[in-house]
Design brief:
The protein is α/β, with parallel strands linked by helices. It has 2 domains: 125 residues, Enolase-like, domain 1; 239 residues, Enolase-like C-terminal domain (TIM Barrel), CATH 3.20.20.120. The chain contains 14 helices and 13 strands. The strands form 2 sheets. Strands 4, 5, 6, 7, 8, 9, 10, 11 and 12 form a 9-stranded mixed beta sheet that branches. A 4-stranded antiparallel beta sheet has the order 3-2-1-13. The radius of gyration is 20 Å and the shape is globular. The protein starts with a strand and ends with a strand. It binds magnesium ion. One of its GO terms (biological process) is carbohydrate catabolic process. This is Mandelate racemase/muconate lactonizing enzyme family protein. Pfam families: MR_MLE_C, MR_MLE_N.
Length: 380
């Protein structure tokens, strides 16, 4: 079997209202934009994947990318990863293409990918992963609604210039939900976007103060409290607090995770298949976490396809306890997130997501919606 044909679509789904993502201060996101790749093999199997990228870029890189995909055996994932490694060094980060290979393999074998990876259970507890900074009372109202919807865990964003403002949201959250939900906190300090407005810049002392304050509220983890390369800082922070330190969503390559583990930086590893090196590398990081006695809670954000890709690895790994469920209505909704899928991904009444039992990655593109929101930017 070999890949014969490749297409890239630039997808742009309008959001109901501007999404004020906390990690890019001052930037109102009005559309969910990403690239959809569609690869077709010589026997007609279609594999798809998606990455968060600017579409026009792929019109110019299309010839280069297609030159190392067309003609390739979709079962030779290791060979493809080696190619991605070379391209990555040259400046193209294309790990998000690899899940399309798994989509093809799953369809060829008639099995969902999580089963090809050795998983036996397709249910994962979802956590309500917020994206915006909201006033304590408004967030408390959201939490009451989300608990009724079934969520048993929430991740709150810390991104005010003064973290004590963020702490007020945690305080209010605990007041209204008591112990009925786990609370995670994400500081998004691993990479600092300051395109339009300055954001908070935590140092080790700030991270320590926050972690110690969170101990009082029994937070489950503190995510990305320091720069992703501050290995010494993360190791020291872990010594200073009982709160679990999580991170790794934008780290790249298996080797960076090996360094994070060897340097004792994290309690919980959070690779994202779209960044780190595809489903294969994420699964290898699950093994690294298991062998090191660490947590493994993959990150996901962006669109329903990336969510399903990461869910496949989550469902194949016994130490994964939670599934990140990006959701912050009324701006970040299921429709805005999953807008080109025939069926949006949702939780059940007990707060679990289910990996579809369909062969491959488990999603079906709604061709009418793709026509409406997508534009083909390259084909070979
Ligand atoms: Mg995060």
């Amino acid at each position: 079997m070999k890949i014969e044909h490749i297409e890239f679509y630039h997808v742009s789904i309008p959001l109901d209202e501007p999404f004020m993502l906390s990690w890019v201060p001052g930037y109102p996101m009005t559309e969910n934009q990403f690239i959809l790749v569609r690869m077709t093999t010589d026997d007609g199997i279609v594999g798809e994947s998606a990455g968060i990228s600017i579409g026009e870029t792929y019109a110019s890189y299309g010839p280069t990318i297609s030159s190392f995909i067309v003609g390739r055996d979709p079962f030779d994932v290791e060979g493809f990863l080696n190619m991605l490694e070379v391209e990555g060094t040259m400046g193209l980060r294309l790990a998000w293409l690899e899940p399309a290979f798994w989509d093809i393999m799953g369809k060829a074998c008639g099995q969902p990918v999580y089963r090809l990876l050795g998983g036996g259970n397709n249910r994962i507890r979802a956590y309500y992963s917020t994206g915006e900074l909201r006033e304590p009372n408004r967030r408390a109202d959201d939490l009451i609604q989300m608990r009724e919807r079934g969520f048993k865990a929430v991740k709150l964003r810390f991104h005010n210039l003064d973290w004590r403002e963020d702490m007020k949201v945690v305080e209010k959250a605990r007041e209204v939900i008591g112990d009925s939900m786990e609370i995670m906190v994400d500081a998004n300090q691993a990479m600092r976007y300051e395109i339009l407005q300055p954001g908070p810049r935590w140092d080790l002392k700030t991270a320590t103060d926050v972690a110690r304050a969170l101990e009082e509220y029994d937070a489950y983890w503190l995510e990305e409290p320091l720069d992703r390369g501050d290995y010494e800082g993360m190791r020291e922070l872990r010594q200073r607090t009982s709160i679990r330190i999580a991170g790794g969503e934008i780290n790249w390559r298996l080797q960076e995770f090996a360094t994070l583990v060897q340097s004792r930086c994290l309690d919980i590893l959070q690779p994202d298949a779209a960044y780190v090196g595809g489903i294969s590398t994420t699964k290898k990081i699950a093994a690294l976490a298991q062998a090191s006695g660490l947590g493994f809670e993959p990150h996901t954000w962006g669109n329903g396809i990336s969510l399903l890709i990461n869910m496949q690895v989550m469902a194949s790994s016994l130490q994964c306890k939670f599934c990140e469920f990006p959701y912050d209505p009324p701006s970040w909704t299921l429709e805005g997130r999953d807008g080109i899928l025939a069926e949006p991904i949702d939780i059940d009444s007990e707060g679990f997501v289910h990996v579809p039992e369909k062969p491959g990655l488990g999603f079906v593109i709604d061709e009418e919606k793709l026509k409406k929101y997508g534009r083909k930017v390259f084909e070979f």
